[in-house]
Amino acid sequence: MAAPDIANTWGDIRQGVKDAETLIGQKQYNMAMIKSRQVLELMVNYLCGNASVFEEDLASSIDALYEYQWIDKATCEHYHKIRMLGNKAVHEGNDDAYDANQAYHLLSQEVYTFANEYKSKKGRPAPRPAAGRSQNSRSSGGRGPSGRSSGGSRNSGSRNQRGQSSSRSRRRQPSRGFSFSAVDLVRLGLGAAVIILIVVLVRVLNPDKPDEEKDTSASVPTETFAPVTEPPTTAPVPIETMPETTPAPVYKISADVLNVRSEPSTAGEKLGSLENGTIVDYVEDYDDEWAIINYNGTQAYVNKQFLTQD
């Protein structure tokens, strides 16, 4: 397999990442995961072309790149995660926002690493493959640089020979403790610019006083004056006015003879009787029919309709 053109491949990768970001912004999460998998396939195909790796599917290609030490373990895991999310979107119609954002985030990290590792250096020479692949791998024999089975003789190489040949033909992978995508770097730059702008505005709007002015103002003594107190004024005492009193109304008996009872009922005990014109000591109305009066030192009841008021 001839190594693909890095210029065309890189242009397609960059455009694919932009398309995935646009699809997430449009909430087309299913298409965003499919696009992320397509971009991953471009990177894997480019690496396989340089490594002369021939595999039937994307998963096998990723494993082969890791086995031949073209990618490290973290990158291998990220590639498989993007691949599985893309497959889930294609075969199961997955449209989950979290999965789409996770696929895009992992893709952005790996595209950034891909650009540093391969684009800036126009690819790297194909390494010598391992002396032999495990009998539990996908093929029965080890794979040579052309990808064909190299026979049982190659499988007899020791691990030390494999490590020595690999170290001579492969460049050390960069540390992947922290990786920033281009979007992350732009966000950090914008945040720093905003903070600087705020500090400048504060300094312009609230300039500090010069040190000399501060020292001069501090050295000038301030005079204190005793407060002037005015003699208290006596408020005129208002002349109290006697409240006007209204004479209490006088109630008289208007019937010839009016019975006085112990209860507000005709069934109540009769305490006595009052003749017409007798003035009574009225207390208050009991209800619409009866009134309370003082009679012989106790409260009693009379029929209200036979009381008249002067």
Protein described:
By secondary structure, the protein is of the alpha+beta class. 46% of the residues lie in helices and 12% in strands. The chain is built from 9 helices and 7 strands. The chain has helices spanning 6-25, 29-51, 58-67, 73-92, 97-119, 152-155, 159-169, 182-205, 211-219; strands spanning 251-253, 257-261, 270-275, 279-285, 290-295, 298-303, 307-309. The strands form 2 sheets. A 5-stranded antiparallel beta sheet has the order 6-5-4-1-7, with no helix packed on it. Strands 2-3 form a two-stranded antiparallel sheet. Helix 2 (29-51) packs across helix 3, helix 3 (58-67) packs antiparallel against helix 4 (73-92) and helix 4 (73-92) crosses helix 5 (97-119). The longest helix has 24 residues, at 182-205. The protein is rod-shaped, with a radius of gyration of 53 Å. The relative contact order is 0.08.
